[in-house]
Amino acid sequence: MTVNKNTKLLDLLGNTPMAALQRINPNPAVTIYAKLEGTNPGGSVKDRAAYSMIKGALDRGELKPGMQLIEATSGNTGIALALMASLFGLSIELVLPQDATRERVLSMEAFGAKVTLAPTMEGAIDYANEQVAKGGYLMLNQFANPDNYGAHYRTTGPEIWRDTEGHITHFVSAMGTTGTIMGVSRYLKEQNPGVQIVGCQPMDGSRIPGIRKWPEAYLPKIFERERVDRIMEVSEADAVQTTRRLAREEGIFCGMSAGGAVAAALRLAGELKEGVIVCIIPDRGDRYLSSDLFAG
Predict the structure, then answer these.
(1) Active-site annotation holder among 46, 107, 173, 206
(2) What are the residue boundaries of the Tryptophan synthase beta chain-like PALP domain, all occurrences included (predicted)?
């Protein structure tokens, strides 16, 4: 192995591998690729957006000397922002819903971030907005920031097109902030308008961390419904079962939002005569070991 002494941590961002599902795919005429975003330096797909949003704010002069970053996040974005803030020498406060796993809180604190807990995700957003109103804070606002989906337009989408040699027919992604699906949709549709973009959200009454069915008042401003061809709803039980199957049958250790997206991809594969599906695996399963996700 040759080591390039000039390689920096940020050089390892993106270009994540894809692995074809071998054992749980219900249709041999359809290929399902899992894009393994847990191999990013901070362990999730959110590294891409975090770098893009901080770099954009610095380049535009929005982040001025003495200002502190603040962001409401359900977890992975917070870890990514904490990592990127440390690399840029910035202070950051991250506001999480109180049901966030302990691993996520500790990971953010390890990178030097201040962590504040709120009762709900909506409460976290409200708290962050209140702090910004007081002055001295900049909120990157992943829910409304074009640099969020821009990262995926510039990197994730092109990688998928390149690695499938343009043969992709369907892209499946969980929808949280919707940055991933918005950016990838933009790019893939430019290459081939026939590529189908499929979003995954929880059924009513189901809770799947990392995937949201947003109340209208909190719907991410970057979300454009016309960029998603189909929305598939997934139950909490199916998301959990698929997450466990991915670990035990495919060797893919990931979080519950990935299980939800793959559950949708498996259902989709069962409907098709042929095709190439790419599904995002947003993070790694070690962020959920204090929960009961893998207990069954």
Answers:
(1) 46
(2) 11-283
